Amino acid sequence: MLVTGLEILKKAREEGYGVGAFNVNNMEFLQAVLEAAEEQRSPVILALSEGAMKYGGRALTLMAVELAKEARVPVAVHLDHGSSYESVLRALRAGFTSVMIDKSHEDFETNVRETRRVVEAAHAVGVTVEAELGRLAGIEEHVAVDEKDALLTNPEEARIFMERTGADYLAVAIGTSHGAYKGKGRPFIDHARLERIARLVPAPLVLHGASAVPPELVERFRASGGEIGEAAGIHPEDIKKAISLGIAKINTDTDLRLAFTALIREALNKNPKEFDPRKYLGPAREAVKEVVKSRMELFGSVGRA
Ligand SMILES: O=C(COP(=O)(O)O)N(O)CCCCOP(=O)(O)O
Ligand SMILES: [Ca+2]
Ligand code: NA
Ligand SMILES: [Zn+2]
């Protein structure tokens, strides 16, 4: 059933588990994520970035909203990294039940003002809002404190930000970053900072840049002809710890892209004569589904629907 992001995330934070927000760009990703959620009896968030909205258009948003309504588990349809008020309005008009307004690159007052504006519009139509405070950036552990404070989320600021904006959940910067290169070896995650934020912000917290970029997946991508450098993701133990400290929504995109692409490369390499897209998109869809199912196990959302 189609529900708001807050309905899913409030319960997750209260009961101490995480819910995956999986980025979808086409039919196969949508099917993979929803099938995984039903098989795992897990709530799930379908995340569409502005790039996904541009790429998939009505085909994608219609599928996402309608399939969410028909799903046998709670599903929210979420705008990921909304960059403007207008972009958020478009998502609201398309029937989304969760929207992110990402003004974390602006100064504090601008972020507050722009986020408040989106909260008023979204709440007027029963949709819940994700905001962001802090700059997503891989941080070496021994980086100077003032540099960390300049980038990562300041706990006291977060409390004031949430009170002044009325946002429903908050994306925090504690050392993660988007993509396949999150740092050298095991990225430093500032759990002490997260603990302070969680004490001051009772709202569900969101972790961006949370993909694991597992070595076996990177290897399959390389072995099938893919080119990727020294990739590193977030360690599963850091994900579990972050959830125990208050993270309720965990964004995963890179792991799905790597799985989908590696399987297509393998299928094309194996059968050069093949030109039925179902023969290589099908196995790729299955691989994405398996990644989603294992992420749900890691987050503790299995059986929570
Ligand atoms: O936090 C994340 C994903 O983190 P990850 O990269 O660790 O999976 N996200 O918010 C996903 C970002 C998706 C960007 O999509 P476009 O390419 O369409 O702009
Ligand atoms: Ca941001
Ligand atoms: Na988001
Ligand atoms: Zn993100």
TrEMBL record:
<feature type="binding site">
    <location>
        <begin position="251"/>
        <end position="254"/>
    </location>
    <ligand>
        <name>dihydroxyacetone phosphate</name>
    </ligand>
</feature>
<dbReference type="InterPro" id="IPR050246">
    <property type="entry name" value="Class_II_FBP_aldolase"/>
</dbReference>
<feature type="binding site">
    <location>
        <begin position="209"/>
        <end position="211"/>
    </location>
    <ligand>
        <name>dihydroxyacetone phosphate</name>
    </ligand>
</feature>
<dbReference type="Pfam" id="PF01116">
    <property type="entry name" value="F_bP_aldolase"/>
</dbReference>
<feature type="binding site">
    <location>
        <position position="179"/>
    </location>
    <ligand>
        <name>dihydroxyacetone phosphate</name>
    </ligand>
</feature>
<dbReference type="GO" id="GO:0030388">
    <property type="term" value="P:fructose 1,6-bisphosphate metabolic process"/>
</dbReference>
<keyword id="KW-0456">Lyase</keyword>
<feature type="active site" description="Proton donor">
    <location>
        <position position="80"/>
    </location>
</feature>
<protein>
    <submittedName>
        <fullName>Fructose-1,6-bisphosphate aldolase</fullName>
        <ecNumber>4.1.2.13</ecNumber>
    </submittedName>
</protein>
<dbReference type="GO" id="GO:0008270">
    <property type="term" value="F:zinc ion binding"/>
</dbReference>
<dbReference type="InterPro" id="IPR011289">
    <property type="entry name" value="Fruc_bis_ald_class-2"/>
</dbReference>
<dbReference type="GO" id="GO:0004332">
    <property type="term" value="F:fructose-bisphosphate aldolase activity"/>
</dbReference>
<dbReference type="GO" id="GO:0006096">
    <property type="term" value="P:glycolytic process"/>
</dbReference>
<keyword id="KW-0862">Zinc</keyword>
<feature type="binding site">
    <location>
        <position position="102"/>
    </location>
    <ligand>
        <name>Zn(2+) 2</name>
    </ligand>
</feature>
<feature type="binding site">
    <location>
        <position position="132"/>
    </location>
    <ligand>
        <name>Zn(2+) 2</name>
    </ligand>
</feature>
<dbReference type="InterPro" id="IPR000771">
    <property type="entry name" value="FBA_II"/>
</dbReference>
<feature type="binding site">
    <location>
        <position position="208"/>
    </location>
    <ligand>
        <name>Zn(2+) 1</name>
    </ligand>
</feature>
<keyword id="KW-0479">Metal-binding</keyword>
<dbReference type="InterPro" id="IPR013785">
    <property type="entry name" value="Aldolase_TIM"/>
</dbReference>
<feature type="binding site">
    <location>
        <position position="81"/>
    </location>
    <ligand>
        <name>Zn(2+) 1</name>
    </ligand>
</feature>
<feature type="binding site">
    <location>
        <position position="178"/>
    </location>
    <ligand>
        <name>Zn(2+) 1</name>
    </ligand>
</feature>
